[in-house]
Amino acid sequence: QVQLVESGGGLVQPGGSLRLSCAASGSIFSLYIMGWYRQAPGKERELVARLTSHGSADYADSVQGRFTISRDNAKKTVYLQMNSLKPEDTAVYYCNAVYSLMNYWGQGTQVTVSS
Questions:
Q1: How many CB atoms lie within 10 A of CB 32?
Q2: pLDDT in tens for each of the 115 residues of the chain?
């Protein structure tokens, strides 16, 4: 059982940076595939970044080179460093944890990029 709580969202100007955090509970956190998804109004939820316990990472083409996902197993926390933010990045960002057939979601944190 994993519970996820996102934080770090807010309002930033284009070109700015933001760091999202996802604090997780659970005794097997290090075995979960952790990822960040986002959903903008009127759009489908999409994968932003995903990092496995083996160190592999996947990024959406739209954020490649700008976003970085990382995890701290000791703190049971996954991060999403977002640089060079664009208005198109505006969305609710959700933390996700997957292990085998188990799938968990956080409640989301709002990121708004606007000038």
A1: 25
A2: 789 999 999 999 999 999 999 999 877 788 889 999 999 999 999 999 999 767 789 999 999 999 999 999 899 999 999 999 999 999 999 999 998 899 999 999 999 999 9
Q: Answer yes or no: are the C-beta atoms of 19 and 8 closer than 8 Å.
A: yes
Q: State the Cα–Cα distance between residues 59 and 54, nearest whole angstrom.
A: 16
Number of helices (H), then strands (E), in the chain: 0, 11
Instruction: Considering only CA atoms, give the Rg of the chain.
Output: 13
Helix (H) / strand (E) containing 88: none
**Euclidean distance between CA atoms 77 and 74, whole angstroms:** 8
Tokens of 72: 């701290």
The 10 Å Cβ neighbour count of residue 27 is 9
Place of tokens 């990472």: 57
| Residues linked to residue 46 through DSSP beta bridges, in sequence order | 38
